[in-house]
Amino acid sequence: MTEQQTISQQLWLDFIHQHPEIGALRLWPVDTPLEYLVLATISQSPWSMAATLSRLAERGYRPTRHYALADRGLLVTLLAGDIHSPRLIVIELQTTRLSSPARAALQQLTSGESSGSRTELGACRPWPMPDWATYQLLRNEHPLAGWLAAMGPRVHHVGYDCTQIGKSLAQLDSEMQEHGFMPASEVDEMLPVSPLIEHRYYPNCSRRLAFADGDEHRITAGAIQLVRQAPGAGRERTADVLLPPYAWCEMS
């Protein structure tokens, strides 16, 4: 197993630990390869995009494309490892997008004492759990702000290519809905998708979390995406053309 495969396996295991309903799906063989994992983080040291890319570069990942999604307050980098590994898509929430009260609340939370050290990527939430009021404030400002506050920098959602599964998107969509996964509208998806890609995005079933004051609330904390290149889209990997071309940018 290569180092990139080891990392993707660690990220996947953490993801299904957080979302056992997704891990329990048996609509395709368990050894079907992931097309990509979307790792979310924030623009604050030591969890920034730059710091994350530096750590991944040490493991042999190379950035292939950068995207700026100003309307969503996100910077995105697509990374490739070896040919057998899923692509990594790192998304960074720009905290400058948040209002002053929300930005201050997030800064106070993430500067709190950590219950764990900076271990492997996506292995833990490196700051205390927020209280419910703080979570709601951040969630109302930006869906990813609330998610990061409660979950920490880790895999937000994963993608499978229908071609690798060997079923049509329509068939898989029907089977997913039979298992209780309802597709979200495009406006509710975390990332825009290229017109070259047919896709469905399924938020995970809500899960109950204990917040800082001890009260428990149910939140939707992850998702799975099914994708398929439209006929004639080319021979690039689906993850490489997942995001729309208008968002490409050059990073200095």
Note down, in words, how this protein is organized:
The chain is an alpha+beta fold and 252 residues long. The chain is built from eight helices and ten strands. It has an eight-stranded mixed β-sheet with strand order 6-9-5-1-4-3-2-10. The chain has a two-stranded antiparallel ribbon with strand order 7-8. Helix 4 packs across helix 5 (132-141) and helix 5 (132-141) packs antiparallel against helix 6. 38% of the residues are buried. The model has no long low-confidence stretch (mean pLDDT 91).
N-to-C CA distance = 33 Å
Query: What structural category do the secondary elements indicate?
Result: alpha+beta
Secondary-structure element string: HHEHEEEHHHEHHEEEEE
What average pLDDT do the residues reach? 91
Gyration radius (Cα, Å) is: 18 Å
Adjacency order of strands in the biggest sheet: 6-9-5-1-4-3-2-10
Broad shape: globular
Q: Which regions contain 5 or more consecutive residues with pLDDT less than 50?
A: none
Helix residue percentage: 25-40%
Oligomer: single chain
How much strand content do the residues show? Answer: 15-25%
